[in-house]
């Protein structure tokens, strides 16, 4: 068969399996991996298309990370960079150390134990980002922290690859690392200059043609990925940095939307290729290590991250969601172990172990991430014992408030500017320690806490408030607030937010006084302006100036409009 026909058969198979997954309401990623297992067993053994699909999978990785980079403003790095770096380094050290000693106890030799310890440390950037993107959680606090942790892990993975390559070639790891650092600084400096001074001059030229904008995006993203690969970094890091360089462009969201269909096709190929790596050869001899490390990755590794995040003051829900997101073996782990086999450091049974661990943990973690909201309530009692109180002194000096605002980001900012005139009778509750500290420094009554914490709700006497505003989009949280408050104070005004029409109607039936649906209210407000001002250009100019001033204030605070596919 021709390669075209072979790949066409793989796509047909992927469609059928994905359709079955959708009927049973299972994640499509699992369908793609299952397609790869079937294709690897039945089709690839008789054909030559596996190499082509492997190349397609590399394009998928690069495209996905390029798109993620488009949504990573440098301000996000400042927002969660410190905690991501500290927790990331701590997680790598703890996990790799435990993995190393566990491997020795399970009978592996010293070098194999080092490789296994490193391999189980890294989480899958592709899996996590794909699921977070599908759930529209990339811009949530735990999503930002997860991305930061992945970047830290990727840096360690790249350093590990450099170290292994240096030893295999008999070179000095220090000299290679120094040369790579110099190259990275030079290329990074050039990119900063280009993104600040050159790209803004060319943006209007790019945007005049939608086709040219698309071609430019591909050329820039894949070109930067190839350049970074050429100088010694990975394709993944190059693609991500290429996206970050364009993140400040006003056309970044348009570029992202144009590339998403291409991303989806190539990512399917990645998961198919991953599934094709499945083999039972030598697996029966590894039942013990596979069982132990599977449980360690799915249970102990998230626990390590939860402990570290709790120590830095993040609440149990943010810590739990972040920890669950990291519970799988990375594609970098496969590359790392495969390189170790090629240079003769380890035997193929270690590659079999890590491959099976990758498939098993990715399968389980896909469900864990997608259903984290349902799993979380089962662990609230246990997680509460681990939660460390954030050492930020609340400035509230009274026990009862007229207005309570839950969540002070984006939409909460508008309420904050309006309600802070109330002074001491206004309270903000947020679970982001950075926001709490910032508001406290501004002299605003602020409590660090979770809206799901019933004890906190009783402590701040939320049911006695005249008005409660929740800018948290989760339905369950808003339902809890409504039922808790309305059961004690039917006159309280409750304003909540959601992104689903059916959920909005359900919240109204529970007693909400007003439900904000951001994607609808914007058009409604614009229509009211049109009806109010008619053809009066001067009045619209005043509205424009007012909004520009508000947007500039938001920009200073690092707010970005969320994107939804």
Give me the secondary-structure topology.
Layout (H helix, E strand, L loop, with lengths): L2 H21 L4 H16 L5 H22 L3 H32 L4 H10 L5 H10 L6 H28 L4 H35 L2 H21 L4 H12 L5 H25 L10 H25 L4 H10 L5 H12 L5 H23 L1 H4 L4 H7 L16 E4 L4 H9 L6 E5 L2 H9 L4 E3 L5 H6 L7 E4 L4 H12 L6 E5 L3 H10 L3 E3 L1 H16 L3 H20 L9
Parallel strand pairs: 1-2, 1-4, 2-3, 4-5, 5-6
Helix pairs in contact: 1-2, 2-11, 3-10, 3-11, 4-5, 4-7, 4-12, 5-14, 6-7, 6-15, 7-13, 7-14, 8-9, 9-10, 12-13, 12-15, 14-15
Membrane topology: Multi-pass membrane protein
Keywords: Membrane, Transmembrane, Transmembrane helix, Transport
Subcellular location: Membrane
From the structure above, extract its key features.
565 residues, mainly alpha, Na+/H+ antiporter like fold, Rossmann fold, 2 domains, 70% helix, RCK_N, membrane, Cation:proton antiporter
Please provide a written account of the structure.
There is one protein chain. The protein has 565 residues and is mainly alpha-helical. The protein folds into two domains: 3-385, Up-down Bundle (Na+/H+ antiporter like fold), CATH 1.20.1530; 403-556, NAD(P)-binding Rossmann-like Domain (Rossmann fold), CATH 3.40.50.720. Helices cover 70% and strands 4% of the residues. It contains 24 helices and six strands. It has helices at 3-23, 28-43, 49-70, 74-105, 110-119, 125-134, 141-168, 173-207, 210-230, 235-246, 252-276, 287-311, 316-325, 331-342, 348-370, 372-375, 380-386, 411-419, 433-441, 454-459, 475-486, 501-510, 518-533, 537-556, and strands at residues 403-406, 426-430, 446-448, 467-470, 493-497, 514-516. Strands 3-2-1-4-5-6 form a six-stranded parallel sheet, with helices on both faces. The two termini are 37 Å apart. The model is unreliable at 390-397 (pLDDT under 50).
């Amino acid at each position: 068969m021709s390669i075209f026909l072979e790949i066409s058969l793989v796509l047909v198979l992927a469609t059928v399996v994905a359709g079955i997954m959708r009927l049973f309401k299972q994640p499509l990623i699992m369908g793609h991996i299952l397609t790869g297992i079937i294709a690897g067993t039945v089709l690839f053994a008789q054909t030559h298309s596996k190499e082509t699909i492997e190349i397609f999978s590399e394009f998928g990785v690069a495209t996905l990370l390029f798109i993620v980079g488009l949504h990573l403003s440098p301000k996000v790095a400042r927002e969660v960079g410190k905690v991501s770096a500290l927790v990331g380094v701590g997680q790598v050290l703890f996990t790799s150390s435990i993995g190393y000693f566990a491997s020795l106890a399970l009978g592996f030799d010293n070098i194999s134990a080092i490789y296994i310890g490193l391999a189980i440390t890294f989480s899958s950037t592709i899996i996590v980002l794909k699921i977070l993107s599908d759930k529209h959680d990339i811009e949530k606090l735990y999503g930002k922290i997860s991305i930061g942790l992945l970047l830290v892990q990727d840096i360690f993975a790249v350093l590990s690859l450099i170290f292994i390559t240096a030893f295999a070639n008999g070179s000095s790891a220090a000299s290679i690392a120094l040369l790579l650092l110099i190259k990275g600084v030079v290329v990074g400096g050039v990119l900063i200059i280009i993104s600040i001074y050159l790209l803004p001059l060319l943006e209007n030229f790019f945007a005049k043609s939608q086709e040219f904008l698309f071609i430019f995006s591909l050329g820039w993203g894949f070109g930067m990925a190839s350049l970074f690969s050429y100088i010694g970094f990975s394709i993944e890091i190059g693609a991500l940095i290429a996206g970050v360089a364009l993140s400040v462009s006003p056309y970044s969201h348009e570029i992202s939307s144009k590339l998403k269909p291409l991303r989806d096709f190539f990512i399917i190929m990645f998961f198919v290729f991953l599934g094709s790596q499945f083999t039972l050869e030598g697996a029966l001899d590894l039942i013990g290590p596979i069982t132990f490390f599977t449980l360690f990755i799915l249970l102990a590794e998230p626990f390590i991250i939860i402990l570290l995040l709790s120590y830095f003051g993040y609440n149990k829900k943010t810590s739990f969601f972040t920890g669950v997101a990291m519970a799988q073996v990375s594609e970098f782990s496969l590359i790392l172990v495969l390189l170790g086999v090629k240079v003769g450091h380890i035997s193929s049974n270690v590659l079999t172990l890590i491959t099976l661990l990758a498939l098993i943990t990715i399968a389980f973690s896909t469900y864990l991430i997608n259903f984290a909201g349902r799993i979380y309530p089962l662990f609230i009692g246990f997680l509460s014992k681990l939660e460390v109180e954030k050492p930020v002194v609340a400035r509230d000096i009274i026990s009862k408030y007229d207005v309570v605002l839950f969540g002070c980001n984006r939409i909460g900012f508008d309420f904050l500017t309006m309600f802070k005139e109330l002074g001491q009778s206004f309270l903000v509750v947020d679970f982001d320690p950075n926001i709490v500290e910032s508001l406290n420094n501004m002299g605003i009554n602020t409590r660090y806490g979770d809206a799901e914490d019933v004890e906190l709700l009783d402590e701040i006497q939320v049911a006695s408030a005249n008005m409660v505003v929740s800018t948290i989009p989760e339905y369950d949280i808003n339902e809890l607030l409504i039922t808790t408050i309305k059961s004690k104070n039917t006159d309280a005004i409750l304003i909540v937010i959601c992104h689903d029409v059916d959920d909005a109607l359900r919240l109204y039936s529970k007693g909400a006084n007003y439900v904000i649906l951001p994607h609808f209210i914007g058009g409604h407000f614009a229509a009211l302006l049109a009806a109010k001002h008619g053809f009066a250009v001067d009045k619209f100019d005043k509205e424009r100036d007012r909004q520009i001033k508000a947007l500039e204030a938001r920009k200073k605070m690092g707010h970005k409009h969320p994107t939804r596919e």
